Every structure is written in structure tokens, then in C-alpha cells.
Amino acid sequence: MKRDKRLAFIPLALFLAVTGAAPAQPTSDQAALSQQVSAWMAEGYDALERWDYAQAEEIARKLETAAASAAADTKIQAKAAYFHGRFQFYTADYEASRPALERYQELDPGNVHPEFTDFLAQVRFLADLWKDRLEFKSEHFIIRVKPGKDRILVEPALEALERAWPVLTRELRVTPPGPILVEFYPDFPAFSQATGLSEQDVKTSGTIAVCKYRRFIVTSPKALVQGYDFQNSICHEFVHHLIYLRNGKHCPIWLHEGIAKYYEPRWRGEPGGTLPLTSLSLLAAAVRTDQLISFERMHPSFAKLDSPQQGQLAFAQVTSTVDYLIRTYGQESLFRLLDELKKDTDYRQALQWVTGKPFPQFYAGWKEFVRQEHFQEIPGLEVVELDIKKPGEPGGEDEDQVSEADLKENEAWKFVRLGDLLRDRNRVAPALVEYEKARSLMPLNVRLLNKLGLAYILAQDYDQAVARLDLARTYYPGMADTNVKLGQAYTGKGDLNRAIESYEQSLTINPFNPFVYENLIRLYEKTRQTDKLEQTRKRLALVQG
Ligand SMILES: [Zn+2]
Questions:
Q1: Please, which residues have CB less than 5 A from ligand 1, an ion?
Q2: Residue 377 predicted with pLDDT over 50
Q3: Which among 389, 225, 232 has a CA at the least distance from the CA of 315?
Q4: Could you give the residue range(s) of every CATH 1.10.390.10 domain in the chain?
Q5: Which of 373, 250, 217, 233 is nearest to 315 (CA)?
Q6: Most CB within 10 Å of its CB: which of 70, 117, 432, 453?
């Protein structure tokens, strides 16, 4: 979850201070109405912040009635229009929000400040973007996509969320009142417009989805070179949603993220708090060298940390802290902590109240807990940055080139570049020699492992291909490419079930690659899985359309 500067738009106090002033010579009716309108607006903003849209709607209606009354002046009409526009923005009806905000601008041009201008520009952008939207409903969720390839996301997204619903509402003890809207933004610039997050923010924190205004704002996996595990990410946002429903703003960001990450794997039936090996390795090293990130440093957002390594470490720390709390003090302790925080208690005091230990003692206990887990520090492991696609750039199935920056960073890349040249001239055996030279210098580089996998496939040495690619998948499970190549390697070996499993796995990260569907169709035919065959043909048509 992200809180960012652009979404704060117009501070309530400022707005009321500027627009709440009575006209120069008000009648008593006008003065009374103006006062009433200000009170309603304050209530309305509060309702919006609490995601109580039913109450906000009622207030919007009261304001409209007030604006239509004889005693209303243009200031009152302007306020009613503004609130209406803001309310419609919260409900994601941008086309209804835009004219209301434009009316506000006309009625009260002297009161238009830069925050409002930015807000209106954002609403106009979103209204244009979503005017041809498609929406698909399940029992508890609505998925919104642009027409075209993103249609492929709908079924897997709804499937994951509906699986998550009973588990997470039960375990977090909150049930959302109505259906939750999930918007998939087609590319990164659109996601950035909707959230105010920059490319750097996204790279540092790995934030590709945000829970805000009672909805999920999500980047389509087709906006990233490698795609990403979008089902997991939307379930992560669902946890944030439930925490917000439970605690409103009374939960520090480190705990919000810790709980979201802790519960994120539950929809797949995996135990809470499961972390990838890279995260555990970073955590073990940071505890050993005392280079942990303070909870204060994580505020107000993980996106403001220094690097993707820091982002990943921060996530590992907070997830592990929640894990420690639950394992040491019981499941109830988490809920007692959340309840205590609702009283606006400082988190250190709240933790002390729950655990009976002053914070430094609790924190030392957690560090000892991490040491006792003996997580393996894996030398040579790298943190993979999210790679946002440039406009017009093709998907992750295309070969990645060795860059000047790579060469500067590690001279092993010169062997890789030579390997690429040889391979492209069909000289696979000498190419493999070069790649293996590079591997002795950077044994766990995921790009290199994938190149090795491909070269061994070309050399028809499928056992070696699987060995390299398996290593890549173990340490970097989020790469669609690795799974595609594993599918090819297993097919070469004649292990059709493993080939199918690998291709299916790749689609959970990048569901846009037609090559994968084509291969799966052949494999389902061979293994006579007729139900999957039909479904896959339909899905292939969607990504080709
Ligand atoms: Zn999060």
C-alpha cells in the first residue's frame, strides 16, 4: 500500500478555510446554510476517508439539495459540485467526476489552486482512459480492464481473489461490505497517473499495485518485461484492504506491509510468512552485520528506500517480525496489537502492552529468532529489479542484450556477449564454453542462467538445460522466461507433465505469450487433456486478438 503526495490533493482544512468563508454581505439564511454546508463537507470527507461511500453519497445528495435552494450562493454551489466530483472519483466513476469538477472550476475560478488543477487533470486522464472499459463481476469482486489483451487477466484474477476471500476474511476477521473494484492499468504511464508513483518508486519497492479508495489499482503484467505474479499481488492488496477496513489509518506502514506480506501466500494454501530464498538470505546477512532498516525509515512508504535491495530487505524484516509475533505470542497478539493501535497508541507502546516487553527487548528477541532460523546466506545471489517495458518494447520472450552498464559492473559479461555472438552464428558448443566461463565468475546471475538454459536446449543437452534453469527458478521464482525455457527443456527430455507444469507456471507471471499457449495446446493434445485444451485455445485467441 502506498500513500503518496499527489493523492493528498487538497487538505480539508485549507479547502474549508479558503472556500468556507461566508460572502461579504450574507443574509442570515445564507450564513446558516453556509455553516451547514461546511459541516456536511467535513463529515463527507471523513466518510470518504473511512471508505463509507453510502454516507458520502448521502452527504453529496444533501449538498446538491442545498445548492439548489434559494439561499444558495455560488460558493455553496461550487462546494456541492466539488464534493460531488470528489465522491465520484472515490467510487471510480471518473466520467461523472469530471463534469462536477469542471463545474466547480467555473463557479469558483478564484479558488482554483495547483492541487485542484492536478486533480482535475488526473480525473480527465482517467475518464478518457476508462471510457471504453470492460467490467467482469464475480461474487465479491469486479475486474476492470481495457478492451484487448488485458482481457486475459480477468479469469485468473477473479479465481485468485475468490479463493482468497474465505481464507483472508476469516483469518483477518473482517468482511468487506460490498464488491471490491480491481482496475488493471494497461501500461506504466497510466498506472503512474492513477497513483502518482514514479518509475523509481516502483523499482525500489517493487510496488506494482496499490490499495486505495476502497479499490485496487494494479499494473497489467504486460507493462513489465518479465511480467509478475499478479494473482499474488492482488491478494496482497486484498490484505491491505482488510487491514484498512479494520484499522483505518491507525496502523504504521511497516506493520501494514508486514501483515500483507505475511498473509499474501495464504490464498494458495501456503503457510503465512513464507519468504523467497533471496529475502531470507538478505535478512540473515542484515541481522549478522547489523544493517537492518529501522521501522521509522520505512515510513511513509517503502518506495522511498534507497534501492531494490533495501526494499526487499524491508519486506523481509517486517514479514519476519509479524511471523515472530504470532509464533511467540500467539495469533491473538496480532489482533490485540491492531486494537491497541486503533487508540492511536505509538507502536512501541502498543507492542509493549501486547508482549509485556519494552520495544528494544522485543526487537532483540526477534533478531535472536532470525539467527535461530539459520537462514542460508547465499553468496552471489542478486536482487532482480522490476523492468518496466519501454513503449513498443516487446515481451520478455525476446533475447536480452549485454549492455555497456553490464560490462562496467562485471567483466564476466564480456564472455556472455561473446557467447551470444557465437550462439547467434549457430556455434553453440563454443558459445557454451564462454557462458560457462562467465558462470564461474557470477554463479547465480539469473540472466546468465537463462542464456545457459537456452544454449543447452539448442545443443539438445536437456539435462544440463534443466539443471541451469532449475537453479534459476529456485532462486528467482518470479521470471516467466525461466519457466518457458524449462517447458522447452522438459519437452526435449520427453517429460511432458513437467513441461506442462512449467508452461502453466510461466502463464501465472506472463499470461500474454502466445508461444506458451501454442506449446500447451500441443502438450494437452498429446496427454489428452481435452477440457484444458478448449480453454487454452480460447485464451490463445484472446492474446492474439
Ligand atoms: Zn503492500
A1: 1, 257, 260
A2: yes
A3: 232
A4: 134-373
A5: 233
A6: 453
Among 177, 179, 199, 181, CA closest to 189 = 199
* pLDDT at residue 81 greater than cutoff 90: yes
Q: In what order do the strands lie in the sheet with 215-219?
A: 134-137, 141-145, 180-185, 215-219, 209-212
- Fold adopted by 134-373: Neutral Protease; domain 2 (1.10.390)
Banded model confidence at residue 19, pLDDT cuts 50, 70, 90: very low
Strands (E), 113-155: 134-137, 141-145
Domain 5-130 belongs to what topology? Answer: 1.25.40
Ligand 1 geometric centre to CA of 1 (Å): 4
Name the CATH topology of 404-544. Answer: 1.25.40
Give distance in angstroms: CA of 301 to centre of ligand 1: 10
Ligand 1 centroid to Cα of residue 237, in Å, is 6
Ligand 1 center–CA 173 separation, angstroms: 19
C-alpha cell at 405: 552498464
Determine the average pLDDT of the residues in 404-431.
94
Measured in angstroms, how far is the CA atom of residue 266 from the centroid of ligand 1? 15
- The confidence score (pLDDT) of residue 392 equals 66
Domain with CATH 1.25.40.10 in the chain: 404-544
CA of 312 to the centre of ligand 1 (A): 12
